[in-house]
Amino acid sequence: RRGVRVSLAQLRERIPLANSWLLAAVFFCIPVQVAPAYVLSAVMLLLWVIEGGLRRKLRELAAEPLVWIVLGCYGVLLLSLLWSDDLDWGWQTMQRHRFFLLFPLYFSVARREHFGRYVGAFLASIALCEALAFYNWAKLYLWPGLPEGIRVDKGADDTAPFVDRIFYTPTLALAGYLAGHRLLFDAETPRWRLVYGTLLATTTLNLLIAGGRAGMLGFLAMLALLAFQRFARRPLLAGAVAAALVAAVLVGGYHGNSYFKSRVDDAVDTFVHYRERPDASVSLRLVYAMNALRIYAAHPLLGVGIGDYPKEYERVNAIHTPQWAPAWNPHNYYLFALTAAGIPGGIALALVLGYPLRRRGPPDGRERIRRAVPVLMITLCLFESYLLRSNVSMMYMLFTAALWRGVRADR
């Protein structure tokens, strides 16, 4: 019995390290698939319980404002089921927010000293996906006779291996920023500068061939942020460098890649003539936003409830824009939160995105990344309801948990 007790004690001592490796594996899943992430998270939770010390862990979680903010946002959306008629759709939409509920687990498991391991796992996964995506692009446009590669079964022009461009390009945007951050602030030898410079370049090229416009805009925002962070004491120079970087990517992509050029031309033409092109993605988003604003204007205090957006949108759409097909979400998370839960939903979302941006942390080399992650998500949520998109929601929750773990104790 004594030997069993010793073995159990040794097992419990090793669980934090094992869970940290499992968390790194979840980071690896971000640009791939979420199904393995759920399995890994379940194993992590089981080990977390076996480890013991639950009272201490719960006290630590209760002392962290981010835990209350994330769970509070989930709770506000869940509460809106009370004034929803379509509970089935409402619950289905709530299930798209599962990673809100996993945030406390990730926060508790994350180890501050292992943050580099988490970033490394994410960047390694991105590098793998980029290699597969370049192969797919070569097969589509250069050598059609190549054997079939690993490619997502969505659009005919999708080159991403596992998820479509809606999910894939936001992960590329963050990967590009992290590669640039390590290149500018962390790499100490020419070898590592070459590694991260190459990853930044390949990520930029991957974004140009992937075609995801929201992800590209997020990446441009990240490039501009990097410039301002690098030249923090010289704002005029930072602005000039940011403008030059953004212009170089856009002009180079436009004149160097026919697919990127066609996507840009299509977006501009659709924006100007959106009434004449009811099936184009840009015109659809314009109409989605206008009708979502109409819904919110009619229900400003509490919204329509998370379950009733499709039904309410169909009614408004039939009155104002009958030539466009109805939508199940406004493709803008700010409008989603406001139409679902009104002013409480807007406040909850503002805290989820704004608190990590405004919160002060120690000058430990990660303070720039702590700003970049919410800036990226704030940008992305203008173009899609990304916090209910599984891969991107998982990315935000994972990085937020890992970046802020242990910070409160230092203050």
What would the keywords be for this entry?
single chain, 411 residues, mainly alpha, 18 helices, globular
Question: What this model shows, in words?
Answer:
The protein has 411 residues and is mostly helical. It contains 18 helices and no strands. The longest helix is centred in the first third of the chain and has 27 residues, at 2-28. The two termini are 44 Å apart. Helix 1 runs antiparallel to helix 2 and helix 8 (165-186) runs parallel beside helix 17. The chain is globular. It is 74% helix and 0% strand. It has helices at residues 2-28, 35-51, 54-62, 65-79, 87-95, 98-109, 115-141, 165-186, 190-210, 213-230, 235-256, 258-272, 281-298, 309-320, 333-358, 367-380, 390-404, 407-410. The mean pLDDT is 91.
What would a concise description of this structure say?
The protein is mainly alpha-helical.
Radius of gyration: 22 Å
* Arithmetic mean of pLDDT: 91
Q: Give the helix tally.
A: 18
Structural class: mainly alpha
The low-confidence parts are none
- Ends distance: 44 Å
User: How big a fraction of the residues is strand?
Assistant: under 5%
The rough form would be described as globular
Spell the H/E element sequence: HHHHHHHHHHHHHHHHHH
* Largest sheet composition: none
